Amino acid sequence: NKIAVELTTAPKSKPDNGQLSFGKYFTDHMFILDYDAGKGWHDPRIVPYQPIPLDPAAKVFHYGQTVFEGMKAYKTPEGPVLLFRPYKNLQRLNRSNARLSIPHIDEGLVIEALKQLIQIDKDWIPDEQGTSLYIRPFVIATQATLGVQPSEQYMFMIILSPVGSYYAEGINPVNIYVESEYVRAVTGGVGNAKTGGNYAAGLKAQQEATEKGYSQVLWLDGIHRKYIEEVGSMNVFFKVGDKVITPALNGSILEGVTRDSVIRLLKHWKVDVEERTISIDELVDAYRNGQLQEAFGTGTAAVISPIGELNWQGDKLTLNGGKTGELSARVYDFMTGLQRGLIEDPFGWIEKL
Ligand code: COI
């Protein structure tokens, strides 16, 4: 399974750090791996970044049989490129694959492809604080037939994008609208798989929240419309008294790698952290009692995104005076310091390239 490499003859000019924002620019190369029933995954190759020809009947366009991942690479002053828990993402990729009836992909091959691709495009990794190289592996069903069955052909690809912060607010708090009409996912559905449909399902609520002046929504569960699930496209944490609470994984919540890392970090710091069911009523009560001190989202793209205000049915709950809380800042500084190689890694999460 040797990876073929075709280098570009027309390298693109690179954006300045200030222009980056999120996912606007792509590097010079990409990785492709094909799948055909009977043949399995085959022809791993790195090629110049380019559009891909697809038949209009390709199943991904019609039935959304697709999954993706998100990871980041960081450049260190001494040279090596650092990856954060890449195996954890690739295991999740295969769990998402299994849920979407997409064949398992060899994780060792993907790591090898990732390493070679990043090595080739390493001059694209921005090195300023708050910037990184975002890695987007994804699979699409390419068989050109309209029957609703699992595809017999797929493409797995990896593209790379130099990025700045995900939210325009950066590490400053975002205001969140608690969504009581639309839901993101239900247990038994695909909420715990990283698949495009979950994000498409969230757009309408996000759009309406934006119109009301909010950056994102807080998702409640699909059955009772009562229990907290996620915030925007991130997992969510609350500091209540001296405890930190986060919704327990229930089948409709994505198993965030940053979520898992933050839980383990808090435990390492001897902070009391609970994964359990949290109702919006409990949060509002905690707020009224002065116990709800901080809230933040966690995800690969933003790492930590503090919440400044929660709008629950017109009631505005201002958290920590609308400023980044002490714990949120401490978690952000540690996570980003670790990812950039500025802090000793007590967990064995950093992979050097
Ligand atoms: C995240 O990293 O938080 C994500 O969910 C990826 C996002 C760009 C869709």
UniProtKB/TrEMBL annotation:
Q: EC no.?
A: 2.6.1.42
Q: Which cofactor does it need?
A: pyridoxal 5'-phosphate
**So what does this thing catalyse?**
L-isoleucine + 2-oxoglutarate = (S)-3-methyl-2-oxopentanoate + L-glutamate; L-leucine + 2-oxoglutarate = 4-methyl-2-oxopentanoate + L-glutamate; L-valine + 2-oxoglutarate = 3-methyl-2-oxobutanoate + L-glutamate
Where does the source fall among the domains of life?
Bacteria
Task: Keywords in alphabetical order, please.
Answer: Amino-acid biosynthesis, Aminotransferase, Branched-chain amino acid biosynthesis, Pyridoxal phosphate, Transferase
Q: Which GO terms describe its molecular function?
A: branched-chain-amino-acid transaminase activity
What PROSITE patterns has UniProt attached to this entry? AA_TRANSFER_CLASS_4
Q: Which residues form a coiled coil?
A: none
Pathway participation: Amino-acid biosynthesis; L-leucine biosynthesis; L-leucine from 3-methyl-2-oxobutanoate: step 4/4; Amino-acid biosynthesis; L-valine biosynthesis; L-valine from pyruvate: step 4/4; Amino-acid biosynthesis; L-isoleucine biosynthesis; L-isoleucine from 2-oxobutanoate: step 4/4
Does Transferase count among this protein's keywords?
A: yes
- Protein family membership: Belongs to the class-IV pyridoxal-phosphate-dependent aminotransferase family.
What NCBIfam families does its record include?
ilvE_II (TIGR01123), PRK13357.1 (NF009897)
Q: State the protein's name.
A: Branched-chain-amino-acid aminotransferase
The species is Cohnella suwonensis
